[in-house]
Amino acid sequence: MTKIACVTMMKDEDFFLPIWFRYYSRIFGAENLFIIDHSSARAIVEMLDPELRGSRVNTFCLPPRAETSDIKRERSFDKQRFTAISGFIGGLLAFYDLVLFNDADEIFVADPARYRDLADYLDRSSLRGQIAAGIGVELFHDRHSEAAFDSAAPIFSQRRNVFLSPLYSKPHILGRPSTLSPHAVADPFILDPDLYLFHLKFVDAGHLYNRQEVRRRAGESDPVLWESWKWEGSVAQGQLTKFEALPIAQKPLSGRAVCRSLFGRATPIEIGAADGPERLRNRSGSKQRVLDHISKQDEARLRKHRYILPDAFAESGI
Questions:
Q1: 28-66 burial string, b = 16+ CB within 10 Å, else e?
Q2: What domain range is 160 assigned to?
Q3: Is there a contact between 216 and 230 (Cβ–Cβ < 8 Å)?
Q4: Which helix (H) or strand (E) holds 42?
Q5: Distances (CA, A) of 251 to 111, 260, 271, 287, 295
Q6: Residues 49-105: pLDDT tens digits?
């Protein structure tokens, strides 16, 4: 059996951390989950639902930026945090076959029409010693047809609306050490159409607005934080309105169909390999990401429609 570890890095993710922890702990066991905490206001265990608090919680706490070296603090925070993440994952790979990394508002999901769950997919795959990515999708709250999100209930019984987002085809399943960055990795990797990365940022309108307001206030006092943290809450809500207006695609969501339309084949694609797809963007870049092998026209085409997830997702219990 493939030995799997799951890692996230987060700060004050009271809403998303319980979702991430519940999903992965049921598949791989809480003892194989690792949380890198960047100075949250509350203890990690206090963010978890009561029924999860008896679980083993492996936490590694990083100091606040104000308490780090003056020289290191001037660097990009993303560069700083991914140096830590890459090193941490490299260490875990001395004990595990594969390490999965997500932000707290992301989960990897294997196609439920083909695999029992993510563990089944990883056991049947040939990813040991490899690096892999899945098809990136945004799962969002359609306020016209869906109620407020219950974070303790199954995700796909409440949310079925998605659109494709190749930026979130993150190559963050690692079977060997590498240097990670936000949406990329330093080495060639496999894009598997039977694997999805769900980004959950827009899963609930109320939480989206509240989270954005908290982050905007943090961004006002820390100029190094990401620009998206500085949006007004109304800007984030405007994005949700745009998603809701997307027409529904006539064909069901299929990772294999996506790969066929982009790369001419429905089987796993080697991104960054000499015989892989041509690099169309950032040609001189040293990082490897799916988006750089997709034209802007194809990216726009992918985002023109939304999909209703097939019933297999709702029936999976995720």
A1: bebebbbbbbbebeeebeebbeeebeebebeeeebeeee
A2: 4-205+243-315
A3: yes
A4: none
A5: 16, 14, 26, 33, 22
A6: 888 777 789 999 988 877 777 777 656 778 889 999 999 999 999 999 999 999 999
**Antiparallel, parallel or unpaired: β 307-308 and 161-164:** antiparallel
CA distance 97 to 186: 19
Number of residues assigned to the chain: 318
Q: Do the beta carbons of residue 104 and residue 304 sit within 8 Å? A: no
Q: For residue 17, is it within any domain?
A: yes
Q: What angle do CA 34, 110, 55 make, to 5 degrees?
A: 30
The one-character DSSP state at 306 is B
The strand pairing partners of 314, in sequence order, are: none
The CA–CA distances, whole Å, from 6 to 21, 28, 265 equal 9, 8, 30
Tell me the whole-structure pTM to 2 decimals.
Answer: 0.94
Residues 170 and 197: beta-carbon distance below 8 Å? yes
Quote the pLDDT of residue 111.
Answer: 98
Q: Is residue 15 part of a domain?
A: yes
- How does the average pLDDT of the chain come out, rounded? 91
Is residue 213 included in any domain, yes or no? no
Tokens (6 digits) for 111: 């196609």
Instruction: Identify the bridge partners of residue 106 per DSSP, sorted by sequence position.
Output: 199
Residue 138 makes CB contacts below 8 A (sequence gap 6+) with: 162, 163, 164, 165, 168, 199, 201, 202, 243
| Spatial contact of 136 and 192, defined as CB atoms under 8 Å apart | no
Q: Are 6 and 32 in contact (CB under 8 A)?
A: yes
168 occurs within a structural domain: yes
Q: What are the pLDDT digits (tens) for 237-276?
A: 888 999 999 999 999 999 999 999 999 999 999 999 988 9
Alpha-carbon distance 117 to 23, whole Å? Answer: 11
**C-alpha span between 72 and 74 (Å, rounded):** 5
Domain count, the chain: 1
